[in-house]
Amino acid sequence: MSKVILLNVDHFIIMLLKRIALFLLVFLFIVSCKSAKHDDVLAKDTLDLSYSESPIELSVNNVKVVRDYAYASHQNNQFDIFLPKSDEPTPLVIYIHGGGFINGEKERAYEYYEPEISELLDAGIAFATIGYRFLQDGERGVIDCMSDSKYALQFIRHHASSFNIDPERIGSFGQSAGAGTSLWLGFNDDMAIQSEDPVLEESTRLKAIGAIATQATYDIMRWEEVFSEHTIDMSRIPPVMMDQLVQFYGITDSKLIETPELIAYRQSVDMLALMTPDDPPIFVYNEAKDGMPLFTDPQHHPLHAKYLKIYADQVGVEHDVSAPALGIEGSGKSIVEFFVGIL
């Protein structure tokens, strides 16, 4: 009788061990599948980079340079990126060129900021300069232009490991249209969305913003407020300027400016209204002279810098604003010192 009991116990133990073994095999199979899938995703997201000679003279050694990398399909959708040698992921500063959203090229960074590029690289900060579509290339006006810069930011962030970039430490700056775009990116809430395109799921938030000769808002009708010291009446702006507005917003008739759809559009590109306390620090510099805007340069008038400071003070956004013609003196830091201190 005891022999039968022992046999039954042995049989039970053997069956239990077999089930455990089967469970382990299934578990290992699932883990290996997940690992293979993860490796496959990594393989798809790893860029095959080819390096070029630097287009400018650098004071820093061991910098890898990628030229004319296409991040989207339009011919302007390219960027150059300078990668300092580092064992750890580095911060990144992205430059967005100006040109009124109708011209310009990423190479303007080399014309205006060659010394600053070397200074950033020497501080261990990577540098990128990007191109984007112009007003004449899109259908939705300035939103298309700025959305390209948004996508370039998301593309680089999505491939951060390929560039050895720290995705949490990215700043952006530019001149004129590039400055306004940087403010638009920085003041918006995160514009990541669920999408079949994984790039669009990346965050658009920045760590720091630089704006040189910027516009305060792309709701142009609000410039009456910005220029209120000079009593500009935007309801009586010249027909030529109104024609420019039509192109700026991607519409066909100036009468559409006050429709609900266009008011919503204007609000979506109103950097002043988008500013909230959780936005990153801003560096604003404008060396232009004061004067009647319509007789000087309304796009780059120092009052734009003043109004950014007014709103930053009200909202509680950290800022370093300089507009000497209006008696506004900042910290005296350079834009490189600004980024180095934050990134």
Question: Which helices and strands appear, and what pairs or packs with what?
Answer:
Elements (H helix, E strand, L loop, with lengths): L1 H44 L17 E8 L7 E7 L5 E7 L11 H5 L1 H9 L3 E5 L11 H17 L1 H4 L1 E11 L1 H11 L20 E5 L10 H4 L12 H10 L11 H9 L2 H4 L7 E4 L16 H14 L3 E4 L12 H8 L1
Parallel strand pairs: 3-4, 3-5, 5-6, 6-7, 7-8
Antiparallel strand pairs: 1-2, 2-4
The proportion of residues in beta strands is 5-15%
- Decide which structural class fits the backbone: alpha/beta
Shape: globular
Helix-strand string: HEEEHHEHHEHEHHHHEHEH
Strand tally: 8
The number of helical runs is 12
Q: Distance between the terminal alpha carbons, to the nearest Å? A: 79 Å
Mean pLDDT: 86
C-alpha-based Rg, rounded: 27 Å
Helix content: 40-55%
The low-pLDDT segments are 1-44
Key terms for this structure?
12 helices; alpha/beta; 15% strand; eight-stranded mixed beta sheet; disordered N terminus; 343 residues; 8 strands
